[in-house]
Write a structure and sequence with these properties.
Helix content: 25-40%
Radius of gyration: 17 Å
Number of strands: 0
Structural class: mainly alpha
Distance between the termini: 12 Å
Largest sheet: none
Strand content: under 5%
Shape: elongated
Number of helices: 2
Length: 74
Amino acid sequence: DVKPQAHAAFNAALHKQMRNTVWVSGCKSWYQDSRGIPILWPWTPRKFRRDLARPNWSDFNLRWAHAEEPAPVG
């Protein structure tokens, strides 16, 4: 799972990037969550592909399971 500090940093960067867009100009849209925060990717498709291709694994709490052990549930 993602570490809380990585989640907070991503959301801060997202909100900063959205600051000068029409999505935060006071309009109401289904692109916004219940607090009026846009739920969109504000960067380029290239950045999206790059970020997915090379995740920063230090942003996650990883736990490796042995092949013979069942994966944890919940």
